[in-house]
Design brief:
two-stranded antiparallel ribbon; mainly alpha; 2 domains
Length: about 200
């Protein structure tokens, strides 16, 4: 198996989070405006989506070119952004793009749940390089992450269906990543308790 090539962590972060930041900035500048393209009027949200899609494609391809590898989540995100973002632009309907995080999180919750049923360590295959842990540790983390993704899917549905577009964009840009960070911080004891010994220990 080919090892991913190392790149500057700042460059990696810029490529991973840059498209989302650009979407946020574009939306905030255009949210009260309309843009006419090809004789059709688009809201600021749809225009921000239209900007976001090709930028995400380019940055994902750049990551793949620089590292030689993409994670399953990056691939799934790219495909669903193209599909659901493309539908939002094509049909001039923001609901499809807002549903995209729900679909992503349900897919991952389902895959993690299936791995538990089949007694397979799929999460460990993806994350073991960053978090070397025992089989028991991966089993516990898989259970917790399945619940996390299910909860995030429900939260996304509640926010986009009951709140304003600005509230959803803020939730998407800052709330969802923050919840993921908090989740891993709260599980730090699990990582310590089930960490595999390093070479020489």
């Amino acid at each position: 198996m080919t090892e991913p090539r190392k790149i500057n962590p700042w460059l990696k972060s810029a490529l991973e989070f840059g498209p989302l930041v650009l979407f946020f900035v574009t939306f905030m500048r255009m949210r009260d405006k309309t843009v006419t393209l090809g004789g059709t009027e688009y809201s600021g949200f749809i225009f921000a989506t239209l900007v976001f899609i090709p930028v995400l494609v380019l940055t994902t391809l750049a990551l793949w070119r620089l590292t030689g590898k993409l994670s399953p989540m990056q691939i799934a995100t790219l495909v669903l952004v193209i599909v659901f973002g493309g539908l939002s632009v094509w049909l001039n309907d923001p609901r499809f793009f807002k549903m995209k995080p729900t679909i992503i999180y349900l897919i991952f919750a389902g895959l993690l749940g299936l791995s538990l049923v089949l007694r397979k360590n799929w999460l460990g295959l993806v994350m073991s390089e960053a978090l070397p842990m025992s089989a028991q540790g991966w089993h516990i983390l898989t259970q917790r992450m399945a619940v996390l993704f299910l909860g995030l899917a429900v939260a996304n549905e509640i926010v986009w269906r009951s709140m304003s577009e600005t509230a959803w964009v803020n939730f998407k840009t800052f709330g969802l990543p923050l919840l993921m960070v908090v989740f891993f911080v709260l599980n730090s004891k699990l990582f310590e308790r089930h960490a595999l010994p390093k070479d020489g220990e």
